[in-house]
């Protein structure tokens, strides 16, 4: 939002610049002249402002003979543009008052001029009217065009001592007209109003005495291309002179309206400034929109999550600040562990112990997984699932808050070092009863995920390190980073698309079907069950991932030899009910059946572990993995379930599909 004012300012600046270009006409108006107007004017030596008027030639008590003078507007006018091939049109209206002074006759006159030079030429008094001198007269050097109001007949061609003429680089007019027929006597000491118009082609002059406004009848209208005599920018103003005879040449009022043909010097900065402004605007907008869309994304993401989490048991949305305080700013002393998707810290919030998973920004658990986890477990409620208390999504930080599990994860109790014969962190040995409670708990959790909740959920990463133990060693299934809910339309597949999971826990068909299914979760559970009952040495990864070297293969060998209970963890010291352990191990093998169709459903698993059912019959030899897997109905005797239970077992198995 902070960028918005910048954008607005830039827009405003552009509007101002653009409009200033549009309004850049050359306009000014003096209804009279005061001393303070001097700064807007350029007056020659001896010209002065006196009695509300400019006296272009002086009004001195001494000698005012043979004096030229000029009075110009302070700024130059862009008359034409070579680049644009345009000539400006202009209108100017002025009131002059010429009166006889200390002289038997009047002389010499006054002119409205457009000139390259504002300085009065030397020796331009007398007949030259301050326009040219003997050297520049008639030459292109003069670079001056004027409309003369001549009060003296200086040479033969002039009609009289009261005329108007158009002068180009000369005081000899190319066209002239006596004012006698227009009710005007220039030197009578009265106000004479004159209008000079130029439309780019014709110069037209109207003259009237003070009582008349403007005659519709021009005194002069002469076609003239000013651009061929004058530079592109010119001074506009007046010149006047006295000679052997003198007069007072007064300008009493003046207004000027000139068109704009584009001022180069102004345009230069405009062409520099506008691109900068536009660039700035684009950048500003870019930044603004990016921030906005980022913010929108976050907000939309949050809204999405919040929309998904509707139940009354919905997890709370935490502030990052709260979680920092709870975990001592993610102090490494509070570190509980490092999982696949981030680091878990212990924290205390409202006097309750919590576990905060700080999802690593680098991890594969992007928003997708985050939302999966929050929306999945957010709506789940089962005593054997790790409870998600809350979540936080701030500053692109993803955090999940769980109930704290004092006994940590199951793997620490199950995997042991052969040399020391101890658990990973010198954990106490788990009794058979505890182990049974654990595997029952996990089975119930998975049954709930697969069959018990609104949408079927595949955990996809069932393994010892994802089983948490509370203070009473109740198992709680956690880490739903890979979990996927199966939407109704996907249900026929019972699957999700990507392969994900942990080597050793993945069913053999996973690699062929490239997707997780209910049966692949059951397979992972089977491996977990066998690990819990048998205990696991810390094998190396390649060994774990090798299907033939897996715990399943190893156990099947014990089973073939008819002494499956020998495989039970030596740490148990055979302190268990033989029948229970045997049943559990056979169940584990059934769950790890290479043919997914033969794996029991989690509901069946729960019933067997509760002693409500006998374990399924499992072939003595480990069946080889055949793909595509053949459903039980079409199996050959090798694969079929032996014994009287076969039919009922099959119907139980079919629960896998038909929930
Ligand atoms: C012009 O003005 C100067 C003083 O600025 C003065 O000395 C000079 O006499 C004037 N010239 C005329 C012709 O009045
Ligand atoms: C000059 O005046 C005439 C008539 O008043 C008008 O039509 C024209 O637009 C004016 N031109 C300029 C440049 O002001
Ligand atoms: C006429 O004026 C020009 C400058 O405008 C100057 O160079 C030249 O000497 C003047 N001629 C005379 C005769 O003074
Ligand atoms: C001044 O120039 C004009 C041409 O514009 C020429 O006809 C005239 O004779 C010249 N006058 C003098 C005195 O040189
Ligand atoms: C102004 O001119 C009109 C004719 O255009 C004339 O009738 C009138 O007398 C003149 N006024 C003066 C003061 O010269
Ligand atoms: C104009 O007025 C002056 C001064 O009043 C006078 O000398 C001159 O004769 C008049 N000219 C005409 C043509 O009326
Ligand atoms: C014209 O100028 C003279 C001399 O400055 C002045 O006496 C006269 O009143 C002026 N005319 C008008 C109409 O102001
Ligand atoms: C210029 O003036 C001449 C003669 O006065 C006239 O014939 C012509 O139409 C005018 N041209 C324009 C463009 O006003
Ligand atoms: C001005 O008067 C002087 C003598 O006083 C004379 O030499 C000169 O020729 C006159 N100038 C004009 C243009 O009449």
TrEMBL record:
Annotated GO MF terms: ATP binding; carbohydrate binding; protein kinase activity
Q: Which residues form a coiled coil?
A: none
Where are the residues of the annotated region Disordered? 638-659
Name the UniProt key words of this record, in alphabetical order.
Answer: ATP-binding, Kinase, Lectin, Membrane, Nucleotide-binding, Receptor, Signal, Transferase, Transmembrane, Transmembrane helix
The segment(s) forming the Protein kinase domain are 330-625
Q: Where are the transmembrane segments?
A: 268-289
Q: Which Pfam families match?
A: Lectin_legB (PF00139), Pkinase (PF00069)
Q: What is its main location?
A: membrane
List all Low complexity biased stretches. 644-659
Where does the source fall among the domains of life?
Answer: Eukaryota
Fetch the PANTHER family from UniProt.
Answer: PTHR27007
Protein name, per record: Protein kinase domain-containing protein
